[in-house]
Write a structure and sequence with these properties.
Strand content: 15-25%
Largest sheet: 8 strands, mixed
Number of helices: 14
Distance between the termini: 49 Å
Helix content: 40-55%
CATH class of the largest domain: Alpha Beta
Shape: globular
Number of domains: 2
Length: 317
């Protein structure tokens, strides 16, 4: 059964009534089909109205929805002949970041992204999508492999941020993130990034310095989580909603600021409500982006990518 967010309570109540009506036996006193249709129409309108005016804090909740598609779901739907590649060849394999070779619409691609997991066991195994240094060093290795074989790269970003543990810091977390970002910027093959859920801090940017940065309609992308920002500014996470409103973290804000290049529409009610439609929409956007970039030379791709991110810095001066 679908998990409802707190602001979806009226929608949940309507869908509960629809289920109850569908379980009733038809009688003369009530036309069940007509009543169900009326309730469904009301539900659909409420969904459109609710999701058409989500606040930044509500969008964060949608981006974190437990049933939202994750990396493995996207790979299963969009990529054929996927072969995962593990390890950073230095310390270990970090399952918070998964990557490998596969085919997108018949074209060889390298796919890399954060995996959060769907249940308690898998979330622990993938560390909730929070990568350690070895995850970013694996990313660098796969980026270099893609460039060596002249294969386009697709990255799927969905993380609250890099793992902040002592061990990760001891093994050079900041350096690994910086070098992964550098590897993205220096790549001589097309790099298309999609922010599919949370894009948190350097842990996201390390995979997101692409020629095209696409973002799901209800995803979020920020330099710090609202909870972290509130803890710094107000000394308490109770002001997380205020921080979310001030951070400009929504796809709509970031497109206006030219931090991203395109917003990918989601099904009414969010990507978690219709995985199939979500995949179809992403497939079209990916195909267009890769087609446009494939016509450019390696040097041109790198030059345009670097210029793109340098211009973001200049715009803030």
């Amino acid at each position: 059964m679908l998990t409802y967010l707190d602001f979806e309570k009226p929608i949940a109540e309507l869908e509960s009534r629809i289920r109850d009506m569908n379980n009733l036996e038809s009688g003369e006193e009530i036309n069940i089909a007509e009543e169900v249709m009326r309730l469904e129409t009301k539900r659909d309108k409420l969904l459109r109205d609710t999701y058409g005016k989500l606040t930044p804090w509500q969008k964060i909740k949608v981006a974190r929805h437990p049933e939202r598609p994750h990396f493995n779901d996207y790979v299963a739907s969009l990529i054929t002949d996927f072969m995962p590649l593990a390890g950073d060849r230095a310390f270990s394999d970090d399952e918070a970041i998964t990557g490998g070779l596969g085919r997108f619409k018949g074209q060889s691609v390298m796919v890399i992204g954060h995996e959060k997991g769907h249940d308690t066991e898998s979330r622990i195994r993938h560390n909730f999508g929070m990568a350690r240094p070895e995850g970013y060093r694996k990313t660098i290795r796969l980026l270099q492999m893609a460039e060596h074989f002249d294969i386009p790269v697709i990255t799927l970003v969905d993380t609250s941020g890099a793992y902040p543990g002592v061990g990760a810091e001891e093994r050079g977390q900041a350096e690994a993130i910086a070098r992964s970002t550098e590897a993205c910027l220096g790549l001589k093959v097309p790099l298309v990034t999609i922010i599919v859920g949370e894009g948190g801090s350097g842990g996201a940017v390390a995979l997101a310095a692409g020629n095209r940065v696409l973002m799901m309609e209800h995803a979020v992308y920020s330099v710090i989580s609202p909870e972290g920002c509130a803890s710094i500014l107000w000394r308490t996470s109770d002001h997380a909603e205020d921080a979310a409103n001030a951070l400009k973290i929504t796809a709509q804000d970031l497109l206006e600021l030219k931090v991203i290049d395109e917003i990918i529409p989601e099904p009414v009610g969010g990507a978690h409500r219709d995985h199939t439609l979500t995949m179809d929409t992403i497939r079209k956007s990916l195909e267009t982006a890769l087609s446009e970039l494939s016509a450019l030379s390696g040097d041109k791709l790198r030059t345009l990518r670097r210029k793109k991110f340098l211009n973001m810095g200049k715009a803030g001066l």
